[in-house]
Amino acid sequence: MLFAAAACGCALAVVLADNVVRMAFYLVLSLGATAGLFFLAGAEFVGAMQLMIYVGGTLVLLVFGVMLTAQAPFVSIKTSAAEKAFAGLLGGALLTLLLVAALSVEPWRRPGSVGPTEPSATPLGMALVGVRVDEPPAHSPAVGRSGYLLPFEIISVHLLVVLVAAAYLARAKRRKTPRPVEMVASVEPPVSVAEHAAIGREAAVGAPARSGSVLVGGGS
User: Fold this and answer.
1) What is the pTM of this model?
2) What torsion, rounded to 10 degrees, do the Cα atoms 51, 53, 58, 59 define?
3) Domain containing 87: what range?
4) Could you report the per-residue pLDDT of 99-138, keeping only the tens digit for each?
């Protein structure tokens, strides 16, 4: 009951929370409580995969993506009333469908006694690390080899590559801030009286010469 209440409560907190980081935290708690329910139900392998894949892999990647893509330290999501109503109707319809499907099955209404079962996670765990346990050693030509080792390693490398690629693509690009332009005043040396007079003489001599050339060109 405690794990079920924690899973439902944290799932409800994910829906009602406005902060993205808090949503991810509540989702971690909800998925962890769901894994606890699997362990209590005797499905050790499903619980372990729940922790390894969802809590340990996908959700951590989601948290890193949220933290790296956030433009502000606290990102809030405001949901309108129409969106809340639509989500409530859709969630209620799915919950009703699941309850009808679960309660209509005969073994669910009259649970029987569960006998002692062997742990299911041990053979699968040994198969993941490369030990072949599905065939006896006498009938197996490849003792100690397993077809699960290579896919397991590929998945682990794939998750690592996805995490590194997401961190690289989602990182904020550093904008090159331009350096402050130094205002350097161009100070020209003072012009003396003699230089002013020379400039005036050059202007006076050059003006008639230009006008004369124009007249000569027009007469010709």
Assistant:
1) 0.49
2) -10
3) 81-107
4) 888 788 776 556 566 566 665 666 666 666 666 655 555 5
